[in-house]
Write a structure and sequence with these properties.
This protein is of the alpha/beta class. The chain has 10 helices and 9 strands. An 8-stranded parallel beta barrel has the order 1-2-4-5-6-7-8-9, surrounded by 7 helices. Strand 8, helix 9 and strand 9 form a beta-alpha-beta unit. The two termini are 32 Å apart. Bound molecules: SN-glycerol-3-phosphate and magnesium ion. SN-glycerol-3-phosphate binds next to strand 2.
């Protein structure tokens, strides 16, 4: 796996979360059908330490099960319906493992922004387990996945354990010490929050040499404005709508 990275203009968020249940294989197929070459998705661990795609610490919102993901084994999680909450058409969609997801991405020829989204206290182990899966299934010839996180501990663990994988620093409000943090953690990209980022911050982070992404951009006018400001990549629930808006 190589550390070089060229951000795409458009990245499907949690697959294509406006059109299919987030963090599912159906969502990734939908993003591919919309022409997205990259997808972002969230990874955390099951009780038996298997990396799966899940955003929330609790399984409730996307499967109806009240337990934390970290307390449920993969076998139990696989029995849950992760599609019906979104629309009846997606009934029976399951929570995918990271491994299943990577296999699908390779089949589709897509690239990945793997957001490490650890359950509390699992910042380092989520990284270790994720890297183990990547080493098992992701070929050296495929584009290196972008490894992103809000967790500075996860980014540090990535830097220590798999330094060649490009790292993305996820930011909500740009902290004063952002430059020192990004430099210390050797990040390749900075991912700004669409509701908070300003034109001045885009200029400041771009001038420092980072690739810039913004999440989550679903409004066509905002997409065009951000491109004008110099953003490289729009992470969007609606890759179809946003691709059209900036074409
Ligand atoms: O990785 C970008 C974005 O997904 C970060 O926020 O909460 O949607 O995972 P969130
Ligand atoms: Mg995410």
């Amino acid at each position: 796996m190589s550390g070089t990275l060229s951000l795409p203009r458009i990245m499907g968020h949690r697959g294509a979360a406006a059109s299919a249940p987030e963090n599912t294989l159906a969502g990734i197929r939908k993003a591919a059908a919309f022409g997205a070459s990259w997808v972002e998705f969230d990874v955390k661990l099951t009780a038996d330490r298997i990396p799966v795609l899940m955003h929330d610490d609790s399984l409730r919102r996307t499967t109806g099960d009240d337990r934390p993901a970290a307390d449920v084994s993969l076998a139990e999680m696989k029995r849950l319906d992760a599609g019906s909450w979104f629309a009846a058409d997606f009934a029976g969609e399951t929570v995918p493992t990271l491994k299943e997801t990577l296999v699908l991405l390779l089949e589709l020829g897509m690239a990945a922004n793997i957001e490490i989204k650890p359950s509390p206290g699992e910042d380092a182990e989520t990284v270790t387990r994720t890297i183990a899966v990547l080493e098992q299934v992701w070929p050296a010839s495929a584009p290196a996945p972008l490894m992103s996180s809000f967790s500075l501990e996860s980014l540090k663990t990535l830097q220590e354990q798999s330094p060649n994988l490009p790292r993305g620093y996820l930011i909500e409000e740009l902290p004063e010490d952002w430059r020192a943090v990004a430099e210390r953690l050797g990040c390749a990209t900075i991912h700004h929050y669409a509701k908070a980022v300003t034109k001045a911050q885009v200029a400041e982070t771009k001038a420092a040499g980072y690739g810039l992404a913004v999440y989550t951009v679903n409004d066509p006018d905002q997409a065009r404005e951000l491109i004008d400001w110099g953003i490289d990549c729009l992470i969007t629930d609606a890759p179809d709508v946003i691709a059209e808006a900036i074409s």
